Amino acid sequence: MVGKWSCEKVWEWHEQQGWLRGFNYLPRTAVNWTEMWQQNTFDPACIAQELQWAKDVGYNTLRTNLPFIVWLHDRDGLIKRIEQFLAICKQNDIKVMMTLMDDCGFSGDHPFIGQQKQPVPDLHNSQAAASPGRNIVMQPNLWWQVEGYVKDIISYFSHDKRIIIWDLYNEPTNRMIFTLNGEAAFDPSMDEYSHNLMEKAFSWAREINPIQPLTVGAWHVANIIELTTPLYKHPTDQRALELSDIISFHAYVPKNLLIEAITYLKNFKRPIFCTEWLARHAESHMHEQLPVFQEERIGCYQWGLVKGRTQTHVPWPEIKRIDKDYQSRWFHDLLNEDGSVYDPSETDLIKSFIMQND
User: Fold this and answer.
1) Do 52 and 58 form a contact (C-beta atoms < 8 A)?
2) How many other C-beta atoms are found inside a 10 Å radius of the C-beta of residue 228?
3) What local confidence, expressed as pLDDT, does residue 230 receive?
4) Which residue stretches of the chain have pLDDT < 50?
5) Gap between the Cα atoms of 83 and 91, Å rounded
6) Which helix (H) or strand (E) holds 150?
7) Burial category of 311 from C-beta neighbours within 10 Å (exposed 0-12, middle 13-18, buried 19 and up)
8) Helices 44-57 and 75-91 sit at what angle, rounded to 10 degrees?
């Protein structure tokens, strides 16, 4: 089995990419990634329109997730739709970070095929479906199916230059669900299972030896650096940082905590990517933080492009409880459903950096 990329190899790869600036992507017509990728609700016309808007803004990369449940029920169809999606991305000069697993099942439901539930009004990402889902994560006797999925997808696209990074597992150990009354709750612990499955995913991917680097994001890192007992020592984060070819993290925090996180992550001596950021109610702002990413040459993927069925323009429930005026501004996302810009000063900033650096 091939091991982790050397520092020399990963820095050479990084230099070839240029400065990557992008977004986490679901089309406005999809309530979750199952709806995005399954046959009856895949919407290439909408995707093509939105990615043209993204190109016009000045983005050159995106991050999106694949659903295990769709692969399990319609492997060949999913492959064809990924091919179609990648072709649209290439037409718009957008490179792809592909995420294979995800513990964010905020709906509380196990993933299912078919018509998805309607979004709960005024609730952030109310129908988010995990991949493969807690029901499988917590049953190691079913992981042979996940192994087949990981190896199949990576093998098929292992030399496809339209995909530039494999993000193997989004937020492993995230146990949060959003209840119908808008509160955040936690299901029974699955931390050990997620941690072990993440390690397995790295091993499975290394067996394939793709041309793309591997990563899993340290998603606690920038949320808690300010605390006396720093959870950036979270064991799953630490193991992800040890195993990853490139360093990635999430940062829904003010600028000072973002800078502290970057300072810490530089200790790993590898390229750094922030794979989730921009949360206006949490003081994660475009004007303050995009210049930091540009100066440090950190690839950055804000959450959301177009306001849509995920309702991620609405803040998390815990923010709604303390900010009674939360509806006066968007939490995530950049564009309205018609392609118009939420805050033109944000897109002007992106375009100004492109003129300076590209």
Assistant:
1) no
2) 5
3) 47
4) 224-231
5) 12
6) helix 143-156
7) buried
8) 30
- Torsions phi, psi for 103 (to 5 deg): -90, 0
Q: How far is CA 54 from the centre of its chain?
A: 17
Residue 224 confidence (pLDDT): 47
Output 175-181 pairs: Cβ under 8 A, ≥24 positions apart: 175/103, 176/104, 176/106, 177/105, 177/106, 177/107, 177/108, 178/106, 178/107, 178/108, 178/120, 178/123, 178/124, 178/125, 178/126, 178/317, 179/108, 180/120
Instruction: Write the CA distances from 247 to 97, 200, 267, 289, 295, integer angstroms.
Output: 13, 18, 10, 18, 17
Write down how long the chain is: 358
Query: Helices in 216-343 by DSSP H: which ranges?
Result: 235-243, 255-265, 286-296, 317-322
Residues paired with 64 in a beta bridge: 98
289 three-state secondary structure = helix
Predicted confidence at residue 225, as pLDDT, reads 44
Q: Provide the residue type at 226 as one letter.
A: E
In 3-state terms, what secondary structure has residue 165? Answer: strand
> How far is 160 from 342, CA to CA, in rounded Å?
34
Residue 190 is predicted with a pLDDT of 86
Residues 347, 334, 357: CA angle, nearest 5 degrees:
35
Report the candidate in 129, 25, 21 with the shortest Cα–Cα distance to residue 69: 129
Tokens standing for 106? 């905020």
How many Å apart are CA 347 and CA 344, to the nearest integer? Answer: 5
Sign of CA dihedral 101, 283, 339, 295: negative
